[in-house]
Amino acid sequence: MKTRVQHALEHLKESGVRITPQRHAILAYLMDSMTHPTADEIYRALEPKFPSMSVATVYNNLKMFIEAGLVRELTYGDSSSRFDANVSDHYHAICEKCGKIADFSIPALENVEQAAAERTGFHIRGHRMEVYGVCRECAEEAASVH
Fold first, then answer.
1. Which residues are known binding-site members?
2. What is the DSSP letter of 15?
């Protein structure tokens, strides 16, 4: 059985993209990581294995993965973009203390784009939703301090 990474690499090869060791490592790191890392976090994690790799290499590969539909870029205000290899329809809960992002889905919202199109006349291309709060770890840490 093929892994998500193998499927993604095949998709890239079919698009004419050469699979370099760095490209493979960046994609595998993103798909294995559920932390929605920044480009800098990816670079720091892979730099020991690829000392000649630059941050620009990471950004260029992320841009290519986004264009190929394998990765989504998450932008939140002024902070660094985060990258998500889960391109299924889902939403994010964001901790206001540590910045952790957790995925969740709400099947009842699957028709929100169609409803928005019908009510506004817009051609809807997508949507996103974030909810903000404090993750369990930060809440427990705060409770233990008091």
1. 95, 98, 110, 127, 135, 138
2. T
Residue 52 to residues 22, 55, 99, Cα–Cα distance (Å): 10, 10, 29
Residue of 107, 108, 102, 87 lying closest to 133 (CA atoms): 102
CATH number, span 91-145: 3.30.1490.190
Return binding residues for Fe cation.
Answer: 110, 127
- Per-residue pLDDT of 88-128, as tens digits, reads 888 999 999 988 899 999 888 878 999 999 999 999 988 88
Q: How far apart are CA 97 and CA 79, in angstroms?
A: 14
| Residue ranges covered by each domain of the chain | 4-84, 91-145
Binding site feature residues for Zn(2+): 95, 98, 135, 138
Q: What CATH number was assigned to the domain covering residues 4-84?
A: 1.10.10.10
Strands 130-133 and 91-95: parallel
Instruction: Write the pLDDT tens digit of every residue in 56-95.
Output: 999 999 999 999 888 999 987 667 899 999 888 889 999 9
User: pLDDT (tens digit, 9 = 90+) per residue, 19-50?
Assistant: 889 999 999 999 888 889 999 999 999 999 99
